[in-house]
Amino acid sequence: MKNKPVYVEIEIQTQMDKLWKATQTPEMHEQWDLRFSSITYLPKKENEPQHFSYKRKIGFGLEVEGWGITAGSHDGNNGERTSSLHFGTENTISPIMEGKGYWKYVPNNSQNSITFLTQYDYDVNFGKFGRLLDLLMFRPMIGWGTALSFDVLKRWMEKEETPSSQYFRFFTNWFITILFSFIWLYHGLIPKLFYMHPDEISMVKSLVSVSHEVASWIVIITGICEVIFGLLWLLYKNKRILFGMQVLIFPLLTITAILAQPSTLIHPFNPLTFNFSLLLISLIGYFVSKDLPSATTCKRKR
């Protein structure tokens, strides 16, 4: 069974020549397209399509290098333009073996915008296993990367924010998101639910006059709340609200911890320095997460 082609469509408020240049010039294309680290046009022969080579760094010193052939057209109906693409690689670690696709630029004269869309498909390496891997992981991932790249391009054309700054904010936001999810899950599960550290119970009993049993239940409930909040960091879309909540939570946690056990102020990595660091990271996250690029702004089906 053959997998469905990748399809991505977005509307961009810009001029045709400006968009054409940003997508057809290698130095500009490689800035916004997450699928490529570099694109190099090869010497062009007369009356032949443009050949190019591309590279995609995948980390740990590894990279995939491939070839491509592209041809653009200015002769569509109502000012439409198209660009066809034939691509492939001989690199054995690449899931993609060879494929074809196109870009299409459709002017929306009534809205002073351009519908920019792509569709492409490819054959995969590794036989049946490669087709299964492509269906479950790689095709959704490369489709997401294409859609995210299209939104970065849209924001570059409309708001003039450079792709590098957009990607910096995007990946910084996700790095901080994973960090906070880990912190809340760890502190909810390990010292409260799994092992019930004596200091947790001692802090509760220092704040409120309760029995050991009641203090233990308060610690358990607190641990459950922290686990839920850690999961929210992975599942809830509006991260700015979570960052804002933490800006309020961390000062309260710091004051509570100091009131419960003032002696912790002389400990290494004490509540004051630890929570202040998390507060600062929360503020950074709050500001960098404003108006982030997103793959969800694109249409993924015709």
UniProtKB/TrEMBL annotation:
Keywords: Membrane, Transmembrane, Transmembrane helix. InterPro entries: DoxX-like. The chain crosses the membrane at residues 174-194, 214-234, 241-260, 272-292. It holds the Pfam family DoxX_3. The keyword Membrane applies. Coiled coil: none annotated. This is DoxX-like family protein. It comes from Ureibacillus manganicus DSM 26584.
